Amino acid sequence: MTRMTAARPPYSPADATRPGLRERKKIKTREAIRAATYSLIEEQGYDATTIEQIADRAEVSPSTVFRYFPTKEDIVLTDEYDPLMLGELRARPAGEPWMDSLRYVMGKALELSEEEPEVLRLRARLGVQVPAVRSRMFESMSETGRLLRQAIADRTGRNPESLEVRVHAMGLIGSMMEVSMYWAENGFEGDLRELMGRALDVMEHGLPAENP
Description:
The protein is mainly alpha-helical. The protein contains ten helices and no strands.
């Protein structure tokens, strides 16, 4: 069985400052905990995997695991992408159409996540199969939505707490989550980039006249 590793920390041109030593150590610890979790889940399943086992394989204490990730679900779902992708979004030209900016940023996110395709598939599969992971996924959407609302406000000059901005932000996040679940439910068939593109088409233009 291939041993799974944590996704490598993504680099973004919008975040050119190299992290300091202390932050690099934190990133290394997070990676070790994620890698241990992924491999244990592949070996014995999600429910059978305990925090104690994860800590032992990552060579840290259980308290350290909890310090970095409040729940086991967070280990599966949390990554470094959100701040970097928001940085990419803010770095796009001010005059660029909003949906073009989103397509660019989503392409960058997929480019980074595809470096570890087995991790991408595992996370999507657990989101479908494990109620606790799916529930935490929904909970985490609110924080991501708050960050995205601010990015939308920065670009458009709108109030980030306005109903329109909130609906648009959560619609985007929800659509991306549905793409991931659709992909997993259908045996990971089809190109994920194409599926993401279809989802953004719906957000931009509404439902097509006929089902694809």
